[in-house]
Amino acid sequence: MLILKKGRFKTIKQVSMNKIGIFFGTDTGSTRLVAEKIYNALGEGIADQPKNVNQTRVSEFLLYDAYILGLPSYGIGDLPGIQTGCMEANWAEFLYKLDDVDLTGRRAALFGLGNQQRYADRFASSMIKLYHQVYGLGADIVGSWSTEGYQFIHSDAVVDGRFVGLALDHRNQSHLTDERVNTWLAEVTPRLLPDTAAAA
Ligand SMILES: Cc1cc2nc3c(=O)[nH]c(=O)nc-3n(C[C@H](O)[C@H](O)[C@H](O)COP(=O)(O)O)c2cc1C
Question: Ligand 1 — pocket residues by CB below 6 A?
Answer without folding.
Answer: 26-31, 72-74, 85, 113-115, 119, 122-125, 170-171
